[in-house]
Structure formats: structure tokens, C-alpha cells
Amino acid sequence: MTSDDFLNDRRDGGTFPAAAPAPAAETVIAVDGVRRSYKDGFEAVSGVSFSVARGELFALLGTNGAGKTSTVELLEGLALPTSGTIKVLGHDPYRERAAVRPRTGVMLQEGGFPSDLTVLETALMWSACTTGARPAAEALEMVGLTSRAKVRVKQLSGGEKRRLDLALALTSRPEVLFLDEPTTGLDAEGRRDTWDLIRALRESGTTVLLTTHYLEEAETLADRLAIMHQGQIVTAGTTAEVTAAHPARIRFTLPDGVPAAHLPLSLQAGADGQRVEIRTSTLQASLHELLGWAVESGVELLGLDARSASLEEAFLQIANTQLRSRADDPRRAGPRHGSDRPTDGSTPNETKKVTA
Amino acid sequence: MTTPTTVADSRTASTPSGRSASLRRLNALARAELILLIRNRSAIFVALVLPIVMIFSIRASLEQIDLAGTGLSVAGAALTGGIGIVLVQVVYMNLVTGYVTRREELVLKRLRTGEVTDREILISTALPSVALAVLQSVLLVVAGAIAFDLSAPKRPELFLLGLIAGFVMMSALAAATSAVTRTVQTSQLTTLPLFFISLFASGIFVPLDVFPDKLAAVFELLPLTGVMTLVRHGWLGGVETGDLVTAAVAALAWTAFAVFAVQRWFRWDPRG
């Protein structure tokens, strides 16, 4: 996929600025105290505020059911929030739809196309409905679907459908692009291609808001990110800022016959039989102390693994924290909504909590 | 180099009042919908074959009835009834399925993320079916003139008023019915009430004059009765002005209600 050629070729003669304008970055998306309740009283979004500057790539992370899609749908102008305000490009995306839509591109988490149209027919229909549209063939080429142009939508694979959806989102040459889980269902190569495309778009000055539950995706792409949990933003900032608050981790297994109690107390290690985990905010010092002890005691630390705080650590810690007990909160006892509800309570493998 | 702001401005400027853009969008969506209609064999069957079958069965049933008091010939009653059939089957029943299909496929939701307005989505979905119905109505008038010695519509303005009200009302009632229809399969059930009421009590199968006066007076209030009266007597003539006024008022009132119902109750997201 060579997306740069397309991005530099704007039909109205102008080009996107090579980089986001530096002085006083304009706020493109402003979300303030937004709540969204469904008819049955379930509150999917419970007071969310954030802003995205022009040219920024902002990622909303969260487990399934955290409220990402419910939030993004409000930004896309598909529904009104129960309370709070939203401005996209200075306008209310729901009430001032006509002012906002020509300048945004949207990829829904689950978008639909008539199954009996071909890929090209779908793209042609969409481009005819769009002001200053990219030609359909060009949009398809950007996402690598040119060879599938004559295939009916119902015969596409899940990944191909996602890419068709992305092609349509790009048709308006959007200033602001909303991508709701853009790579779900893609294979590794498709995911990398999509990442390259998103990066190229960002390079050309497009503001991107994406949701994902792939931590790697947020880590590689996002300038800033926010982690949502149970309808609220729990933490936000750059990857470095988000991870700074979390401890580094050391893991190893002690040989039989060496109880964990023999470890230096200052390490505040937590043990499960012979398996030991240490959380520390001073990784280098703790490692030094640990290794020194191991040498002195003649102990071999099996499977020694030390790592700085990662987004994954931060994420897991948040995901495992019950902010409010779901059972105690009647608003959260309601039925599931859409596909953004937890299907398997999928907080990845439980980590034992040992605080350094 | 253009700053993003000027890009935005020029883009807003290139979307003037938007009438031409709106027509372009309607055209694009209706064209896609037409392709889908042509590729949908069961819809094509319903649209092309069933009306003919129904007209023959209307004729068969009319031969059992004494039409003497109605001033209608069997052919006149059958062909005007045929237009009613087209309205119910080709427009109403076909479109309920159409709206439900697009909603459940999440097409409506996807379309609403773009520049297309809600009204454009609803109208463009209806256009191919309405166009087909117009074509069939014209064919019925031509067939009446050539094969059955019927005249061209005697009061074309009433005939047209009836047809147009019928198209709008049936499309809007289809959209409203889709709101209470969970799946494409259940649309075969949810369309039945209006189908039967219209066929037997709005004058499609049996002219209203055949019923006792009190019953006929009630039937006049049904959705399609006013439309049928306008179409039948706009085409064949021979009815009092008072009845035509009643019919026009009923037709327009139901049309207005149907449009209101869509605005109030239409569902864009899947029911589930």
C-alpha cells in the first residue's frame, strides 16, 4: 500500500500541511462531562472529558464493555449524549451534522453494506454521496482492495470488509477520522498495512481518534491515549505518562529448597510457591540487590525476567480494579448493549498483585 | 499550501444550499437500491408476477358479485383494483422488507455516518419500488385502453392525486411498519394486517358500494380507501363530489399520519 501518493494529491489543488501546525494547536475534538444512558437505564458512559488537538492521533483503550464504542458513536454524531457537550471541529456533531460530516470520516466497529452490491458499486455509491470525494478506485487502492472490486460484499472475508469500511471512511479526505477498532479481524499483515496507512494519514495532518483493545496498536500509533474502564476515563496521557505511574516487574523461580523467605526483605517480593514476583519503581536498584543476593547465596534465578512498566501492566492493573462494584450499581445490572459489552470478561490472564 | 482551515472553508463553499448535492446523493443511493432490487429474485417475483395473478383473482371474485348498483364494469373494477394491489404489494410489502434488511445489515447506521440526510436515506430506498409501481400503473391504464375498452383517466388530476398520495403513504407506512418488525422473516407477518384490511375493506377486491352503507362508512376511514376512491373514480369517473372530498381528506390525513409515524418511531439501529 503506497498511501503517500494519494495523500499528497488533493483534487482541490491544496495539500495537507506536512505536519500539524505547531503554534497553539487547535482543538479539534472537545468532549466535556459526557454521559450516555440507554433507555433501560444502563449508563455506558459516565462522565467522560478529553480533547484532541489537530493532527493528533488519540487512542481510546479499554476492555470490551468499557464504553469506547458508546463514546465514539456520540462523537460521530449518531446519538445525543444524555448530558455533557461535544464539539467536533467547533460544531455539535449531532445537531450540526451538515457542517461536520463533509469533514469527517467514520469507520464503525460494525458497519454494514448491502451484501449484494460489489465492492466497487459500494465505493461508487459512497463517493457520490460525499463532497469533494476521492475517486472510488483510489480509495479502494489505498486499502489494497483493487483486485476485489468486482466481488460481492457478501463474499468478502471479515478482514476485507474492515478494509472496505476503511476505504469509505477515507473517501471524504477527512480532516478528522474516527476508527472504531479498525484492525479487529485482520491478519497480521493486514494489520501492519492498516497501521502504515493510519500513520501516513497522521503524517499528512489528519486528526485520528481510534479505539482499540490491542495495547500494541495504541502503543505504536498513538500520540496520546486514554484508558476507559466502566464508562470512565481512568488515566490519560502519552504512553510514557500513563506507564510512569506503574511499577516495573521482576519475575523468576527459585530452585527447590530455597524458600522465598530467604530473599532480602527490602525487595518486598511476593511468592507463589517457588515463583516470585517483585514490583518496584526503582528497577535498576532492585535488580542490583537481587542479583547481588543471588551471587552471595549461590542461587540460580530460573527464568529471570525483568521489565519496565509497560502499557500492558498499566492496562491490566486498571482492568482488574473494580472502580465500582457492578453488582451494587443498578445502572450496570442492565442487559448488554451492542457488541461493546463484555462477552468473556476478557481481562487477560490474571496477574497476582504484589506491590513493591 | 493551504491551511486546514481554508480547506474546510472552501469545502463548505462548494456545498451551496445543497439541492444539487442532495439530488446527486438521492440518485446514487437509488441507483444502488435499484441494482439490489434487480438482484433480489423473490422481490422481483413479488413485484412482477403477483400483481398479474392478483388481478385475475380479483376478476374471478368480481364475477360472483352483482356490480349492478356500483356503475362499475368487471374490467374497470379489476384494473383499478390492480393499482391497489401494486400499491400494497410492490410498494408497501416490498419496502417493509427493504427497510428491515438495510437496518439489520447495519447499512442504515453506516449511511448515517456520512453526509446523507435521514430523509434522503428513506426516500432513496423507496424510489426504485415506487418507480416500478408507476410503471405498472401506466401499464394497467394502457392495458385497460387497449384490451378492455376503458377510457384514459377521466379526471387525471384526481387519479394522479390518488396515486401520489398512495405512493407516499405506502412508503411511509412501510418505514413505520419496519419499526415493529424484528427480522426480514417476521415482515411476512407484520405486513399482513394492512394487506388484508386494504384488500377486503378498502375497495381493492370488492368495491365498497357492495357493502351495507354503515359498514362502507367505516371502511371509508381505512388508510387506502381514500386513495382507492380517488384512483378508481379519477380513472373511470362517476362519483359525487362529496365522496371525492371525503376520499381526498382521508388519503391526505393518512399520508400525513404515516409521515409523522416515521419521524416519530422509525428505527435506525438493529432491533435485538
UniProtKB/TrEMBL annotation, chain A:
Subcellular location: Cell membrane
Gene3D superfamilies named among the record's database cross-references: P-loop containing nucleotide triphosphate hydrolases (3.40.50.300)
UniProt keyword Ribosomal protein present: no
Domain ABC transporter: 29-255
Molecular function in Gene Ontology: ATP binding
Chain spans, region Disordered: 322-356
Highest taxon, organism lineage: Bacteria
Keywords, ordered alphabetically: Antibiotic resistance, ATP-binding, Nucleotide-binding, Transport
Family annotation (InterPro entries): AAA+_ATPase, ABC_transporter-like_ATP-bd, ABC_transporter-like_CS, ABC_transporter_ATP-binding, P-loop_NTPase
Descriptive protein name: ABC transporter ATP-binding protein
TrEMBL record, chain B:
Subcellular location: Cell membrane; Membrane
Identification of the protein by name: Transport permease protein
Pfam family, one: ABC2_membrane
Lineage of the species this protein comes from: Bacteria, Bacillati, Actinomycetota, Actinomycetes, Kitasatosporales
Topology within the bilayer: Multi-pass membrane protein
Family: Belongs to the ABC-2 integral membrane protein family.
InterPro entries: ABC-2_transporter (IPR052902), ABC2_TM (IPR013525), ABC2_TM_bact-type (IPR047817), ABC_2_transport (IPR000412)
Domain ABC transmembrane type-2: 42-265
